[in-house]
Amino acid sequence: MVEATKPGVYRVSGGAEPHVVEIMPGAGARCDCGDHQYRGRQRDCKHIVAVHEHQMRETHMILDPTGWDAETPAGQALLDRLGLDETL
Hints:
- By secondary structure, this protein is α+β, with helices and mostly antiparallel strands.
- It has one domain (about 1-80).
- About 40% of the residues lie in helices and about 20% in strands.
- The protein has helices at about 35-40, 45-65, 75-80; strands at about 1-5, 10, 20-25, 30.
């Protein structure tokens, strides 16, 4: 589970212990887990990946809080406005 604690800071729980992820625009992300400490910027840890996925879901909910489907007229209109096609 991902929970925003303040702007750019997230608490990721669901494993053995919760971890804190900080998203720093233009500078990447940082996590307090051992995997991130060991690998650094070579590869995102699962907690950073969870935060990025959470941010994508939040962005989609802001665009359309009812959820949308590219097969519906509303979904197609949104894709048209964004200059995208439904095959993406």
